Amino acid sequence: MVRYHLPKGMRYSTLEEREQFYRQELNIEKVRQWFEGRKEKIVFAVIIGRHTKIYPEKYKEDASTTIIIDEYKDLEDVRGQIIEFLPESAYYDRNVYDKENKTIGQELAFDLDPENITCPIHGSLTDKMGRGQGLSFCKLELQMVKEQTINLYEYLEKMFSFMRIVYSGRGYHIHVFDEDAYKMSYSERRKFAKNLKAKGFPIDRWVTSGGMRLIRLPYSLHGMVSRIAIPVNIDEHRSFGPLNDERCMPRFLRV
């Protein structure tokens, strides 16, 4: 199994650690607050072991599959289903659907990951992929993508009024909740993403354009790096350091 190179202190979570986190630490109330205002039923999803190759043996055949969770009673039921799969990653669907399950909008989001940074030490994403280390990143890249997130947030503030930053485990997500942003068409999103790339922002265009509708669930565990995805406001973000900030470290790393 190829293991990705990660900054010191970050590592893959074991199945036992994933279970401990989701049973004892996943803050259901904060997850509920994240979706406050969304009247439509949220669709969730998990990926069990696509990148880490760590998965329950009974789900070996589905380890790399995106498993949708759209039938559940409440968020506690969602927790129970996540515990059943013990995934490396948990997500939610940004699409908004009507009663006939037709897409009527999508939450606008921006995904900035450290591996997309051209590092003076490790090179570009193409260089890393050539070494079989496409998802690897270093401490310097982590700092550089944090600065990029601040710059992008300040740029977007000129256009949007309701945004939140989430430390995603490896990089950062910027979520936009303005009503007009939900109504943007695919072509508008694609053009917007293209313009941001042209300005030098290392965003994932597939996420911003809407081609990838899933995004990491806040307060879930990123099993590749053993960090909790947490919202961080812009003032906190400037001093936030995911390598040693206890707010994003699960208990199994703090013992």
What does this entry look like structurally?
The protein is an alpha+beta fold and 255 residues long. The protein contains ten helices and twelve strands. The chain has helices spanning 15-24, 28-34, 75-85, 125-130, 139-156, 179-182, 186-198, 205-209, 234-237, 251-254, and strands at 44-47, 66-69, 89-93, 95-97, 103-106, 108-112, 163-167, 172-176, 214-216, 221-222, 227-228, 230-231. A four-stranded antiparallel beta sheet has the order 2-1-3-9, covered by helices on one side. A four-stranded antiparallel beta sheet has the order 6-8-7-12. The model has no long low-confidence stretch (mean pLDDT 95).
Which labels suit this protein?
255 residues; alpha+beta; DNA primase, PRIM domain; four-stranded antiparallel beta sheet; 10 helices; 17% strand; globular
In short:
This protein has ten helices and twelve strands. It has helices at residues 15-24, 28-34, 75-85, 125-130, 139-156, 179-182, 186-198, 205-209, 234-237, 251-254; strands spanning 44-47, 66-69, 89-93, 95-97, 103-106, 108-112, 163-167, 172-176, 214-216, 221-222, 227-228, 230-231.
